[in-house]
Design a protein that fits this description.
209 residues
């Protein structure tokens, strides 16, 4: 792959990733707002403007590093987390679960709606390529964030379901969360567990062979 092809591929993949991340973070903020916390709204995060959700390292530098290190085969990153003041929620322990679920469910819903379009309308090859990749990115983002390791959404969901004492102990893992994730990814977590789940979901949506 030449330099021009790399640049074009990165630009397209990054734009699609940014759409998926924006939907994800907006959904967290929207559900938190509906459940009584206005922090995201007054922080300017209750918006679908991607610029409001960009983090210099996680959204810009990390995707570029992953893309280059994989030879242009893979791109992944994260948006700036939406701030949530759990003490403002009407039922913090229960609402933590809904806020945690909101991001992944929004990604799955967007992927499902796009798959309906792909399965019902004959689109130009370029549009099909872009939408199919957007489906995949949304599914990957949804599945990845359901991993129950802090600070991913799955950990918020699990903490909200655990008894208070166990949840408090579990949350202590957050300081080691990224280290644990790096170790698991280096051991093939994505290839062995996450990717098969992504393919299964895409097959159920009728957009994977």
């Amino acid at each position: 792959m030449n330099i021009l092809s790399l640049v074009i591929t990165f630009a397209i993949s990054f734009a699609l990733l940014l759409i998926a991340m924006t939907v994800h973070e907006f959904s967290h903020g929207f559900v938190a707002y509906k459940l009584g916390d206005s922090t995201a709204k007054y922080s300017g995060r209750l918006t679908l403007n991607p610029l409001a959700h960009i983090d210099i390292f996680w959204t810009l530098i990390l995707p570029l590093l992953i893309f280059l290190s994989s030879g242009g085969q893979f791109l992944f990153g994260a948006a700036k987390p939406v701030p949530v003041n759990y003490s403002s929620l009407r039922n913090p322990k229960r609402d933590m679960v809904w806020i945690g679920l909101a991001g992944p469910l929004a990604n799955f819903l967007l992927a499902f709606l796009l798959s309906l379009l792909l399965n019902s309308v004959l689109l130009p090859p370029v549009a099909t390529y872009l939408l199919l990749n957007l489906v995949m990115i949304n599914v990957v983002l949804g599945v990845f964030n359901l991993i129950p390791i802090p600070p991913l959404d799955g950990s918020r969901i699990l903490a909200g379901l655990l008894p208070a004492e166990l949840a408090q102990q579990y949350n202590l893992l957050e300081r080691f969360g990224f280290i644990i994730l790096i170790i698991l990814m280096s051991l093939g977590l994505f290839e062995r567990l996450l990717w098969p789940a992504v393919i299964l979901i895409m097959r159920l949506m009728g957009v994977a062979g």
